[in-house]
Recover the amino acids of this structure.
């Protein structure tokens, strides 16, 4: 499996050479709680995050939302370069070294399902 960022990087690499990664910044969306749906599907609740997962740790901060830059880690952020369970793809838990796959996580405490407007 590859991420959209990897595929865009490959495409840009062909067009722009070695520095294509600097032209792309991939943000993965993740949430602590709530429910997921599309306009054509019934909502279903997100599972409780596994203890020690990215979502669990972010949920414990009390933040409602945060952008966590994985490309430029802040001092003390080296723990994000180790294997970590997170659910940025279809809200399913995966184990990964996330800075290898995405540039940032956009975390929200509560996910609301998509619904049609108008």
């Amino acid at each position: 499996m590859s991420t959209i960022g990897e595929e865009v990087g490959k495409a840009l690499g062909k067009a722009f050479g070695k520095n294509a990664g600097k032209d792309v910044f991939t943000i993965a969306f993740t949430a602590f709680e709530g429910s997921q749906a599309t306009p054509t599907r019934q909502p279903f609740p997100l599972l409780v995050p596994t203890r020690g997962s990215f979502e669990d740790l972010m949920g414990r901060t009390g933040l409602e939302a945060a952008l966590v830059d994985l490309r430029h880690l802040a001092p003390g952020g080296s723990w994000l370069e180790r294997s970590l369970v997170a659910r940025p793809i279809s809200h399913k838990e995966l184990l990964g070294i996330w800075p290898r796959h995405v540039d940032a996580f956009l975390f929200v405490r509560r996910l609301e399902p998509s619904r049609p407007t108008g």
Summary: The chain has a mean pLDDT of 86.
